[in-house]
Amino acid sequence: MSFTVNKITVLGSGIMGHGIAQVSAMAGYNVTLRDIEQSFLDKAMDKIKWSLGKLVEKQKLSQAEADKIFARITPIVDLKQALKDADMVVEAVPEDMNLKKKVYAEVESAAEQKTVFASNTSTLPITEMAALTNRPDRFVGIHFFNPPQLMPLVEVIPGNKTNPATTELAMDFIKKVGKQPVLCRKDVAGFIVNRIFIPLVHEAVFCKDRDGATMTQIDSAVKFRMSFPMGIFELADYTGMDVIHKATIEMHSRDAKVINPHPAIKQLFDEKNLGQKSGKGFYEYKGDKYERINLTEQEAAKYNPIKLVAVAANNAAWLISNNVCDKEDLEKALKLGMGLKKELFATVQEFGVKEVVKTLQDLEAKHGSFYAPDPYLLNYKQ
Ligand code: 3HC
Predict the structure, then answer these.
(1) 357 found inside a domain
(2) Where is 361: in which H helix or E strand?
């Protein structure tokens, strides 16, 4: 089996869809960006223009190059027309299995035989989605990170029936768009990065409740003592509470061990406090544009984030113990997908492996088996 990719169709023009369309066009592909309403597409094209403008401002592109890239992206509402001649469809519609079912039924009947399906799902089972189509051998997960324009990682997740040639094609496509693929060997809840990121958001709220720390103290500690580029509440607001909430439900329903849900996420979602995109989430924002929270080393000194280190390390350990990825790929994924400036296990060593394990055991005694330390951590040598 051999395919080449020339034309891409991206389904869904939200945060991820417009970014994937842009990076594909930046790599020279002709891209069709499809959404169900023209107004969504207009907003997406505005965001692409803003992002290209930023890259011009930072002299990463010339204005002439930016104009050419923009011209390679065609926004289209009509599905049949959008899928015409597509070598690869990248589906980036909201994370709801019922919606995905509807979309894949429509796409399967309108797409050409040659088209490979790639889903940008962050948490839904690839095998289950592939089974909605007549081409499970040519269906693969390719999970980009927000913002796709700046984050170099893409997780590649084969389903049970994905042909190895399809996985290869996906890896190759990702390299061509200037990103770095990491293979997620098993179709597990949250894949690699979200298995660490999403539970950490919940844990941060528990830390706020249980330790009486403020959000900026916790976030500053995450930034300056755990080497994250953003605080965890800040990152949740940046990602969007709709995304976090849906990912939580999906991940928890697939595997209750992965996450200890805090009700605050659902509450923010129900109140439509979705984060930066709605002007309010954990923090308040001036508008819906990119905005950062002021985090300082002084605030960081007021909170010891060992519980967050422990929960992140425990989920990381689970991934390694269960052969989803090895330690090297895990660290690569965290560096490229979440911008960690230091390896997670180097941070664990700084806090002390024994102390991290003891923290988990204390949490397990008080709050249950979610915190039970993974054997990989128990056997980890300082
Ligand atoms: N395109 C172009 N430029 C952009 C941009 C975009 N989409 N978004 C932001 N920028 C610009 C900013 O405007 C800023 O420009 P300025 O200097 O003119 O103000 C510049 O990039 C850099 O921003 P910052 O000064 O705020 O600097 P940082 O060094 O912190 O970089 C970041 C920003 C890359 C977002 C970094 O903070 C980071 O890596 N954050 C973590 C993001 C992360 O973890 N993403 C993964 C979330 S999980 C996920 O996506 C999975 C999903 O399934 C849930």
Answers:
(1) yes
(2) helix 353-367
Active site residues: 122, 143, 155, 194
In order, the DSSP letters of 312-353 are HHHHHHHHHHTTSS-HHHHHHHHHHHH--SS-HHHHHHHH-H
Whether residues 154 and 12 fall in one domain: yes
Mutational test site, ligand 1, from 121, 243, 290, 336, max ligand atoms within 8 Å of CB: 290
CATH number reported for the structural domain that contains residue 174 in this entry: 3.40.50.720
Q: What is the pLDDT of residues 143-176, one digit of tens each?
A: 999 999 999 999 999 999 999 999 999 999 999 9
Please say which residue of 183, 207, 223 terminates a domain.
183
- Give the tens place of pLDDT for each residue, 99-118: 999 999 999 999 999 999 99
The verdict on 136 and 201 lying in the same domain is: no
Measuring from each residue's beta carbon to the nearest atom of ligand 1, which residues come in under 6 Å? 51, 54-55, 122, 145-147, 149-151, 194, 197, 229-230, 235, 239, 243, 290, 292, 337-339
Query: Which residue bears the tokens 């890239």?
Result: 69
